[in-house]
Amino acid sequence: MPLPFNILVLVCLLYVIFLFAVAFGADKRARHGGATWLGNPLVYTLSLSVYCTAWTFYGAVGYAARSGLEYVTIYLGPTLVMIGWWGLLRKLVRIGRAQRVTSIADLISSRYGKSNGLGVLVTLLAVVGTTPYIALQLQSVTLSFAVFAEQGVSDWAGGEWAGGQTPVDLSATALWVAIGLALFTILFGTRNLDANERHNGVVTAIAVEAIVKLVALLAVGSFVVWGVAGGLSGISQMIAESPIESWTIHPGRWAGLTFVSAAAFLTLPRMFQVLVVENVDEEQLSTASWAFPAYLLLISLFVIPIAVAGLAVLPKDANPDLYVLTLPLYYNQQGLAMLSFLGGFSSATSMVIVASIALSTMVSNHIVMPIWLSVRPRKEATVSGDVRHLVLSARRLSIGAVLLLGYLYYQFSGGGAALAAIGLISFTGVAQALPALLGGILWRGASRRGAAVGLIAGFVVWAYTLFLPSFGDTGIMSAKMLAEGPWGIEWLRPRALFGLGGLDPVVHAVLWSMLINTTAFVTVSLMSFPSPLERLQGAQFVNVFEHSARARSWAHSGAEAEDLLIMAQRTMGADEAQSLFQRQAVEQGKDGYLPDITPDFISRLERELSGSVGAATAHAMVGQIVGGASVSVEDLMAVADETQQMLEYSSQLEAQQSELTTTAHRLSEVNEKLTQLSIQKDAFLSQISHELRTPMTSIRAFSEILREGGLDEEAQGKYARIIHGEAVRLTRLLDDLLDLSVLENGQVQLNPQHEKLSLLLDRAVAATSSVTEGEITIRRVREAEQTQLYTDTDRLAQVFINLIANAAKYCDAARPKLEIRVSERPGELRVDFIDNGSGIPVESQGMIFEKFFRLSDQKAAGGAGLGLAICREVMDKLGGSLSYLPGQGGAAFRITLPQAS
Amino acid sequence: MIQMTDRNSDQLAEKGSDSEETRRTARQVLVIEDEPNIIEAISFILSRDGWTVSTHSNGETAVEAVRRVAPDALILDVMLPGRSGYDILQDLRADVATRDIPVLMLTARGQKNDRELAERLGVNLFMTKPFSNAEVLENLRQIVGS
What we know:
Pfam families (chain B): Response_reg (PF00072)
Number of domains of chain A: 4
Oligomer: heterodimer
InterPro entries (chain B): Bact_response_regulator, CheY-like_superfamily, Sig_transdc_resp-reg_receiver
Radius of gyration of chain A: 35 Å
Protein name (chain B): Response regulator
Keywords (chain B): Phosphoprotein, Two-component regulatory system
Number of domains of chain B: 1
C-alpha cells in the first residue's frame, strides 16, 4: 500500500516544525546565559557534517553505481585533512578567533592588508561556486518528493489531478522549499549581530539533522544487507556478481578527486563557517579529528551494498542517485522510505542553511557595506547611521538573493545533470581560494597582488575548462569550440589545454587551474612588495601561536573617543560597546566610559567591530573617524626589521615595555592623586570658607543697613527678604556639607526597605514637580520599572530627585525632554537618565562629580555644587554606582544597583 | 558687560556737567563683584555716602571696564567668573593709565597667603567678607585720601 503523498507532506512539515523548535530552544538557552550546546565537541563534530549534503546522501550511491569505489575519494579528502592537517586546522581556528574572522573572504581580505578587493573576489568566487550546489540541493529535495508522488499517482488519478497533469509541480515544490529555507535562515541566522557570528540555534538544528541523516542511511543499509541480501555473505556474493566489481581504480583520478575534496573541505564557505567561525573552543578540534572521520566512515559504510542491490533489483532505467529512496519503496517499506526521505531532506536543508548564512555574511560585509560607506559622506556614515540595522537588513536580503539565485539556476539548468558532476564542479571552483588561504597563513612573503592574480587566474581557468563546458554544447560553448578550441586554436581546447588531452575533465581542470593559480600566486608575490599593513597582518597570521599581542594598525591620533563610542554603539549594540569601552578605560587606569585613544585600543576596537562587519569594513569605519594615516612610524619601523628573531625579540620587548608603561602610568597616577589630595584639602577648606562667607556677607551688610533705619517700607521688605533667602541658602549648604561628611566617613545608617522601582520613581517625579512642571517632559516605560527593590529607598529617591532636578535646570533644548530608561543585566539593575540637551563637554565629564564643581556660573541655579558629589557617595553606599554616560546625544547619567540574581 | 543701575547712570551723566564743587565730593567708585546681593548692599551703602557707583561683574572684561570708567577708587572681588581678581589687579598695576587707581580688595577666602599675594601685587587694602559697612566706608575714604 503506497504512502499517500499528503502524509509525506505532513511528516515533512512536522519535521520542519521540530527543527524550528530545536533552533528556537537552543537560541533561547544561549541568550539566557545557559550552557550552550555549541560548547560540546560532539555538537561541533556533528555540525561539520554539513559537508555531507544531499550529494553525499543520494549521490554517493549513484556515484558508486556508476564508478565503483571512486566515491570514497570524497570522504578521503576531509579525513586526511582532519587527521593529517590537524595542526593547520588549529592554526586556522586560532587565527579566526584572534582576528574575529567572519568568513573565508574576511580571512583572506584581512590577511592581505584588509583589502576589500580580495574580499569581493572571494565572495564572487564563493557565490558562483555555491549557487549550482544550492540548486543541486533543491533538485534533490524535489526529486525525492517526485519519487513519492509517482508512487501515489494511482491514488490521485481520477481526482482533481486528472487530465494528464503530473500530480506534483516540481518547480513549485522547489520554490516552496527555497522560501521555507530562506525563512528559517533569516529567523535564526540573522537574529542578532553577534560579536562572534555564532548561531546557537542553527548549529544545534544542524547537529540534529546530522544524526537524522546518519541514522537514515544506516537503516537503509542494514535493511539491504540483512533484509534483502540475507546477511554479510549474501551481500559479498551480490557484490562479486555486480558490475561494480569490475570497475578499476584510475590513480590519477583518485589523487585528483581526493585533493579537490580536501581543498574544498577547507575552502567551502559553509565548511569554513562551521569549522572556524562557529568554533568556540580550539580543544573541540581534537575530538573532531577522530570523531568526524568516524562519522564519514559510518555514512559511507553501506554505500556499496545499496548501490549493488539497486543495480541488481531495480529496473535498468531507475535513477541510481535515488536508490536510497527507491529501494525501500520497491520492497514496500514505507516507514524506512520516509526515514530515508527525511535523511535526504536533512542533508539538503542543512547545507543550504549554513551556505546561505556564510554567503550572506560575505555579501553584506564585502559588497553591501563598502558601497554604503563610500556613498555616504565621511564620518557621517559611521556616526549617525544605524549600522546595525543596515547590516542585518543586508544579510537578510542577501540570504533571500542567494536562495533565489540557487532556485533560478535550478530552473534554467533544467535539473538534468547527474548530481555528482555538479558537486565536483563546485568543489573545484571554491578550491581556487586554497593557495591564497594556505599561502596566507604559512608564508609571510605572500602578497595581496599575488593572491588576487592567483585567484583570478584560477577562477578563469576553472570557468573555461570545467564550469562553462558543464552546460553542454548547447550552452555558452559550442560543440565545435569544445572539440577544436576557440577559432580553431587547438592548444586552447577547453578539455585539453596546452594539448594535454586524454585526461578526465575534472582532473584536467583541477590540474591546470591549481597549477596556474599557484604559480601566479607565488610568482607575483615574489615580485611585488607588500604594503606595511599587509606585512603586519602577515606576521600576525603566520606567527599566530607566538604572537599574543596584535598588530598595531593605527597611528596615535586625536580621534574623539566619544565619536568612536557612538559608532561602536550603532554597530555592536549599546551594551557591548559600553562594556568594551569601560573595560578598556579600567585597564588604562581610568574612570568612566572613555578610554584614551591608543593604537592598542583602536586595533582592539577594530577587531571587535570586524566580528560584526568584517575586517575591511571595520578598518574603513574606524578610518573615517580616526583619520587617514593608517600606519604609524613605529609600525613602519617594526616592518623594517623583518627577520624572525628581530620580530620575536621586539615583540617580547614590546610586551615588557607595555607592562612597564602600565605600571609607570599607574604609579604616576597614584602619586598625582596623593599630591592632588593635599591640594584638594586646602582647596576644599577655602571653598567652604567662600561658600559660607558669601551669604554671610549679604546678611551682615543688610542687617546693618536695616538696623540703622531710615528706609521706606518697600526697601525694608526687600532687604529682609534678601536676608532670609541668604539664611536659607546657608542652612542648605550646611545640611549638604553634613550629609556629605557623614556619607564620606561611612557613618551613614542605611535603612533598607522593600519598594517597587516604579513607585519610587513616581515619588521622585512628584517631589520635583515644582521645578519640572512645564519645564521638562519626562518619559518613562512603566513596564520596565516593575522590579522590586530592597535598598535604602529614601536615599535612592534623593539621588533620583537630584538627577531629575538637574535635568530640569540645565537641559538647554528648545523642548526639554528627560528619558528614564530602566534595564536589567545579570546581577545588575540600570536606571539611565538621558536628556536631549547639549550634554556635558568631554573635558568636564571627569569633574562633574567633584565637590563644588559647577558647569556654569549660574548662581541662579542655586546649589552649592554638592548635589552630584552627594549622589555619587549615596550610590556608593548602596553598593551601586553613578556615572556619566557619554555618547547619548544629551546629558546622560547611569545608576547601577546590585540585584540579587 | 557694564551693569549700571539707573540711579548711577543718571548721576554719572549729571555730575559730568556739574560744577567743580560737586565733582570733588561725588567721587566715582567702580565695584567689581559677581554676587548680586552683595552688589546691591555695597551700592546702597556707598551711594548713601555720596559716591557715584558703577558695577561690573565679569572678570574677563573687568580691566577694560576700569579703563573706560576711570574711577577714583576700585572695589575688587577675588573670585570672579572668567578671571580672578589677582590677575585683574596685576594688569591694572602694569598699565600707566590705571596704575595709580586705589584698590580695595574684598574676598571671602581670607587665608594668609591670599592676603600676601594681594599685597605683593600692590593692593591698597585687603578686607575679608563678611565686612562691617562702616569699615568699608572708612577704608575706602582712607585709600582715596592717601
